Amino acid sequence: MIYRYPMDSDCAPDTPFGYDAFRRHCMSHTVLEMLASKWVYLVVGALKPGRRRYGELQRKVEGITPKMLTQTLRVLERDGLVRREIFPVIPPRVEYELTDLGRNLADLLNQIRVWSEQHAPDIRDARARSLEGELTG
């Protein structure tokens, strides 16, 4: 991810944490930008149970391309959410796991996943009503 704006380190001194995600130059804004990726969400969720190899992640996260998985893992590693371990064997073996910060995020994202699974029928029905209204309206 490339950020378009320079980031303020102290963009909202009057807030509890000193950051304001509504300000585009604020570091917390870029954190939300990273978290908005469905691939970040799914990879973090796939790593929640524990270490996984690249191929395991690719099989678990259906639809992700190798390029997108690699980019996502790099972003998560850069931001301190994922740790990558390379084992000195031939062929090389690489495993990924969540850091403490990543596990903290995974717990929060799990609540969103549960909500989405619980309310999927409600959303499906609302979409059907909307489409029906478009066709008859």
Global Rg: 19 Å
- Average the pLDDT over all residues and give the rounded result: 89
Structural class: mainly alpha
Q: Write out the strand line-up for the largest beta sheet, numbering strands in chain order.
A: 1-3-2
Describe the sheet with the most strands.
Answer: 3 strands, antiparallel
Ends apart, CA distance between termini: 41 Å
Number of strands: 3
Shape: globular
Low-confidence stretches: 1-5
Strand content: 5-15%
Q: Compute the number of helices.
A: 5
Q: List SSEs in N-to-C order.
A: HHEHHEEH
Model description:
By secondary structure, this protein is mainly alpha-helical. It is 55% helix and 10% strand. The protein contains five helices and three strands. The chain has helices at residues 27-35, 38-47, 54-60, 66-78, 100-136; strands spanning 52-53, 82-87, 93-98. A three-stranded antiparallel β-sheet has the order 1-3-2. Strand 2 and strand 3 (93-98) form a beta hairpin. Helix 2 packs across helix 4 (66-78) and helix 2 crosses helix 5 (100-136). The protein is globular. It starts with 26 loop residues before the first helix and ends with a helix. Residues 1-5 have low confidence and may be disordered.
How would the blueprint of this fold be written?
Elements: H1 27-35, H2 38-47, E1 52-53, H3 54-60, H4 66-78, E2 82-87, E3 93-98, H5 100-136
Antiparallel strand pairs: 1-3, 2-3
Helix pairs in contact: 2-4, 2-5
